[in-house]
Amino acid sequence: MINEFKDFIAKGNVMDMAVGIIIGAAFTAIVTSLVGDLINPIIGLFSGGIDFTNNYAVLAGDVPEGASLEAARETGASVFAYGAFIMAIINFLIIAWVVFMLVKMVNRVKEAAETPEEAAPEEPAGPTQEELLADILAALKKA
Known about the structure:
The chain has five helices and two strands, in the order ααβαβαα. By secondary structure, it is mainly α.
């Protein structure tokens, strides 16, 4: 049983998957920072600083007028936080676009780095029929 487990873990695809997950988690932090710290502020400039995060509807409970979503949740009220969901969708679309562009760029770099394989030199195919006949004729003349 232990040997089977060792064989399973030692397989290349399991190790590749583990490395991919670890790098993916690290890459997620980079992309999230890129979107949150660089791209969203630029979009905020063009959209007039629109932020849907604090848009919500109170389903049950008392919430002071104009309270933020966090303050509404702290009161214990039941809130329908549709604004946070809208912002999550917008962030997802931005992250997906950034990842798409990064993958596209990496693929271009990878294609540029790949050099076409040089054609292997042709091996001589051997003498032609005419050359063989000429050799035979020359050998017969000597005899």
